[in-house]
Design goal:
CATH class: Mainly Alpha
Protein name: ArsR/SmtB family transcription factor
Pfam families: HTH_20
Keywords: DNA-binding, Transcription, Transcription regulation
Low-confidence stretches: none
CATH superfamily: Winged helix-like DNA-binding domain superfamily/Winged helix DNA-binding domain
Strand order of the largest sheet: 1-3-2
Largest sheet: 3 strands, antiparallel
Structural class: alpha+beta
InterPro entries: ArsR-like_HTH (IPR011991), HTH_ArsR_DNA-bd_dom (IPR001845), HTH_MetalResp_TranReg (IPR051081), WH-like_DNA-bd_sf (IPR036388), WH_DNA-bd_sf (IPR036390)
Strand content: 5-15%
Number of domains: 1
Radius of gyration: 14 Å
CATH architecture: Orthogonal Bundle
Domain HTH arsR-type: 11-107
Amino acid sequence: MTSTSARELEHPQCGEIRLEAVLHALSDPMRLQIVRYLATLGRDGEAPCSAIDLVVTKSTSTHHFRVLREAGVICQIYQGTAKMNRLRREDLDELFPGLLGTILDADAAQCRRLGDGH
């Protein structure tokens, strides 16, 4: 991982992203909800943590974002006091072609099957 200052967050370089870390990060429903939301924003879309309505405490929310960032699924940067989040879709598609799209498609199918309103 790259070294950072106090206002920069650590992210794995593209070549350091591991499949098992990505799969672990995506295995949690709250983290999948974050990824689902960011995927709707398009390739260059980004959103602050507060834009994603998670029904967990702030500390738990922070944990979920950290797991996604450390796995290489999202990129987080500070803009003022807000942490902006962007899906690392290009990196993931380069390393694991079709994986993210397949997971999002499977998630959407499951939501339809179970009647979840994602």
